[in-house]
Design goal:
Elements (H helix, E strand, L loop, with lengths): L7 E3 L4 E3 L5 H8 L7 H13 L1 H4 L2 E7 L2 E8 L2 E5 L6 H15 L5 E5 H11 L8 E11 L12 E2 L5 H16 L10 H11 L3 E5 L5 E11 L2 E9 L8 H16 L3 E5 L5 H10 L2 E10 L1
Parallel strand pairs: 5-6, 11-12
Antiparallel strand pairs: 1-2, 2-3, 3-4, 4-5, 6-13, 7-12, 7-13, 8-9, 9-10, 10-11
Helix pairs in contact: 1-2, 4-5, 6-7, 8-9
Length: about 290
């Protein structure tokens, strides 16, 4: 596989910014680890269909002897993908050099832990302002029917429910990350939530007044994998195992209509969530890490 020379090339590290002609090759790299790479491959698929500008970022590549070996999506998040068998140190050197040259543009560095932490060790001095490093986030999957009963009231949300779904999403994000993502009507976070609802990738259970009791989204879908994000139970309903039956419903509907493999990642210290996901039937297949700015 011969690479074309792109707009930015570092001969020493083998790192460069790819152009749109290289995107299919980048997707082939991601396919070597479809669960670990789903965040990046989702964006690359969007870039293939609509162009890099509309996808909101760029793709970095690490190559050796003319062969593309590792890639990273660089947008609101920086997501490195270094498949098994590729020299991790050399790939991280290449991505870190590109990161130093361009400066930090992302709000997080996220993905498989070895690659994320390897890049971060090289960029700590150049990218100040880190808020938190989550270095142990089990990556889990389920590729069979859930092991617990499904909640029959969990369903896809509709645009007519956005006034209830959006506040629930904001509350979940604020609890998880520590600040509100809200940026006003028509802002990027509202647009993101609206898009997920429109695409049928937002799941909810509501009470009789329409308030959200349980929610989850398919934040990334590519390569036969759907990654669940934003799992949340309203405080008044916690402790009643809504998350287990709710996640079972999400798994069942996702496997039937979206992708055969359902994945997620969760902080290792969140023992209750880990136990709930295991009861549903998820198993750990790797580790993620997240660096938040």
């Amino acid at each position: 596989m011969v690479l074309r020379r792109a707009s930015l090339l570092d001969e020493r590290t083998g790192g460069r910014v790819l152009d749109e002609r290289d995107l299919r090759s980048a997707l082939d790299v991601c396919a070597q680890d479809p669960v670990g790479s789903v965040l990046a491959s989702t964006r690359i698929e969007q870039a293939i269909s609509g162009g890099l500008r509309r996808a909101g970022g760029e793709v970095w590549g690490y190559s050796s002897e003319g062969q593309l070996l590792a890639v990273a999506w660089s947008g609101a998040n920086l997501v490195p993908v270094v498949p098994p068998g590729v020299d991790l140190d050399l790939a991280c050197d290449a991505f870190a050099e590109l990161g130093r040259r361009q400066g930090r543009r992302c709000s997080s560095l996220v993905g498989p832990a070895d690659a994320v932490l390897g890049v971060w060790r090289r960029l700590r001095a150049a990218w100040p302002g880190v808020r938190e490093v989550r270095d142990d986030q089990p990556s889990m999957v389920i590729d069979h029917a859930p092991a617990v009963g499904v909640d029959p009231l969990v369903r896809r949300s509709g645009l007519d429910e956005l006034d209830h779904v959006l506040p629930a999403c904001v509350r979940m994000f604020t609890e998880e990350v520590g600040y509100s993502p809200a940026s006003g009507p028509g802002g990027p976070y509202e647009t993101r939530v609206r898009t997920l609802v429109t695409q049928g990738r937002s799941f909810v259970r509501t009470d009789t007044s329409g308030e959200v009791m349980f929610k989850a989204e398919l934040g990334a879908v590519a390569g036969g994998v759907a990654q669940v994000q934003g799992v949340w139970v309203a405080p008044a309903w916690r402790g009643q195992r809504l998350s287990e039956a709710g996640m079972a419903a999400v798994v069942e509907q996702t496997r039937a209509h979206v992708a055969p493999v359902v994945s997620l990642y969760v902080n290792a210290y969140n023992a209750r969530a880990l136990a709930a996901y295991r009861r549903v039937g998820f198993r750990q297949v790797g580790s993620y890490a997240t660096v938040l700015f």
